[in-house]
Design brief:
- The protein is mainly alpha-helical.
- Strands 1-2 form a two-stranded antiparallel ribbon.
- The protein has 3 helices and 2 strands.
- It folds into 2 domains: 35 residues; 50 residues, no CATH class.
- Helix content is 65%, strand content 5%.
Length: 104
């Protein structure tokens, strides 16, 4: 199956344009279906690895949240922004507003 966009050196009729759309959609659907089948087969073959990845991702989020909470607590009690190597507190101003009201 080749990838080539239609070249239109001449005016295209409505019927020709419709046929090109139908053909392009059919070709896309065929390829898309094949890709989906391959993705499903890959996911099935590597299900354990994908589960491990999800578990490790969740663990990273949890331990990062714990570190973040500890860093904030230390900052609040000491006013030090550099908590540990690679751990710094950054203060930011957040504007709280109603976007709809801001547009009026």
């Amino acid at each position: 199956m080749s990838l080539s966009l239609p070249q239109w050196p001449h005016a295209v009729t409505l019927d020709e344009a419709l046929q090109m759309v139908i053909t392009a959609r059919q070709q896309y659907h065929t390829v898309h279906t094949q890709v989906q089948q391959l993705r499903e087969a890959w996911a099935s073959q590597y299900a354990t690895l994908l589960q491990d990845e999800a578990l490790h991702k969740q663990t990273v989020h949890q331990v990062e949240a714990t570190l973040r909470a500890l860093a904030v607590a230390i900052y609040q009690s000491t006013d030090r922004k550099e908590i540990a190597p690679g751990v710094k507190v950054r203060e930011m101003t957040r504007l709280i507003y109603d976007p709809q009201e801001a547009l009026t």
